[in-house]
Amino acid sequence: MATIDEDLGQIERDIRQLKIEYDQFFGGGRKRPPTEIEWRIDLLMKKYSERGGDLKSAQRFRFTNLSQTYAKYKDIFRKKLKQKEEGTVQRHFGAAAKAIEAERARAAKETKAAPVDAEQARSQNHAEGSAFRMTCSEPERESEKVSKLYEALVSAKQSAGEDLGKLTPESFAEFVRKKTKHLQKEKNCTEVEYIVEVVGGQAKLKALVKA
What we know:
Elements: H1 4-27, H2 35-50, H3 57-86, H4 95-100, H5 104-113, H6 118-127, E1 132-136, H7 143-159, H8 169-187, E2 191-199, E3 202-210
Antiparallel strand pairs: 1-2, 2-3
């Protein structure tokens, strides 16, 4: 029987795969939407929504982030399905689908040229060099800020065609906590500003001290 962390990891992988296959479907590369993956995610989401008390704080934080991401994607897919049924959706392959085809560089250019939803538009902004900025002083009490920073970094990595590797919401939250405390002590500052941007085709995370 899978552990909670294993199930959460499966949800995270399935959400990424779901977006890839929906991009392929909307681009004409698949005949049917990936309903099996969506069904599997829904089952696990329902399971842990009902077992919230069994989750540790880090697991609950991770599950909340996954739930928010999944809900956002489902809303995007619902709208694009409606557009497709009405014959108004543009045919394209998303950046994730291009990554599967080992054409990440070309996909990034195509995504810049024709973004069709909010998620792709945000990736485009990263690719064009715009930066996401967030300032915090007590990250352990600012989970919403840390969550947004994590999503910005994931989005930047995806737009740059980078693998997320071992990056998870809980490991990132711990990194931000330690980094903030270290800089506050070393630089005798109150706040730390984090900046996420894509530079030279690579996702970058910077930490700057603020007085």
